[in-house]
Amino acid sequence: MEKFFELKKNGTNTRTEIVAGITTFMTMAYILVVNPIILGSTGMDQNAIFTATALSAAIATLIMALYAKYPFALAPGMGLNAYFAYSVVANQGLSWEFALTAVLIEGIIFIALSFFKGREVIFDAIPLTLKKAVSVGIGLFISLIGLSGSGIIVHPEGTIVGLGNIKEGTALLALIGLLITFILVIRKVKGALLLGIILTTIIGIPMGITTIPEGFKIFSLPPSVEPIAFKFDFSQVFSTQMFMAVLTFLFVDMFDTVGTLAGVASKSNMLDKDGKLPRVSKAFFADSVGTVVGSMLGTSTVTTFVESSAGVAEGGRTGLTSLTTAVMFLLALFIAPIFTLVPAAATAPALITVGMFMMEPIMDIDFRDYTEAIPAFLTIAMMPFAYSIAEGIFFGMISYTVLKTIAGRYKEVSPLMWILSILFVLRYIFIV
């Protein structure tokens, strides 16, 4: 392990990496429950989707671990699965087989872009200020996910957001868990986030939130993926609808991944002095292969998860972290009942705490230079408010290009930034 992952060189050890990998898994294990529910609304077999979700996550994360050697985990992405189910299938009236075909084509295009280092060039083109801002924006984004998912923050009618009923139920449990997690973090307890999740889950039992069903069994055999695997529909592959579906999957997946890698890498000091991430092309390759494999198994686009920041916050710095997460996904196939016991209120404190950790790079942003400050602010604000990492990047890059040019500092804008900004504007005009 030391030789392959260079643990000492990266300032870590085996125990830290394993705890970080388990923590990452625990914060993203909800996808094993949520993804089957969302994709199941299209008529797909939910049990088969569970297996496809776990397998695709394990395979993609394993590639990230052994090939890219980064502590990033992958799984079918939230937002992308919603677009799959509610836009392509429900709103447009297309089949889930059509949507799977669009995901397959997108994945193949991404593999080609990764081979020719197209996504690496895009990653490097993003200014360092925006990479710092992405980290902060992701922090607010995942904090919002935790606050909303636990019921601390609600969305009452007539109001954008509001405070939930924190005197009882999941919101109260989440606040208790948050207090426990903060105490563990302040006391510098190793594995604080993971321990916080476990303790909160246990406390939830007498509160009636962590429920143990009758006839509970720890072990179970995974359902077959046969009902959904390799169920492609190439009959409309050259249609306008297919083009738009692939283009949307492509844009959102690309910049969700770019944003996650930039944000998490920035927070953990993995970027070099020029703001570049070494081996980033290998990380993109893992993401691309994961999407293709996922579509073959029968699930939506696989992408790098922002919850990877939880493992990084626990000290994960190498592929051993993601290797541990991959193993956990494989184990989940056989001990799924255990992980389904963990309520959202137990993982919310970890997400909120990581959100706080992700805020640190904001101190490196020069808010006295408005050509830097405004794009950074838009990047940070749009991620939670638009509920999308990609949208934050789009607004940040467009404003950076425009404001630098207006200020007469156009030489600070690379040609690729201009090209991407124009493409983003066209996307809003013709797609959104």
UniProtKB/TrEMBL annotation:
Keyword Translocase recorded: no
One annotated Gene Ontology cellular component of this protein: plasma membrane
Superkingdom per UniProt: Bacteria
Membrane topology reported for the UniProt record: Multi-pass membrane protein
UniProt keyword tRNA-binding, yes or no: no
Transmembrane intervals: 18-39, 48-68, 98-116, 136-154, 166-186, 193-212, 242-264, 284-306, 326-352, 373-403, 415-431
Protein family according to the UniProt entry: Belongs to the nucleobase:cation symporter-2 (NCS2) (TC 2.A.40) family. Azg-like subfamily.
Name of the featured protein: NCS2 family permease
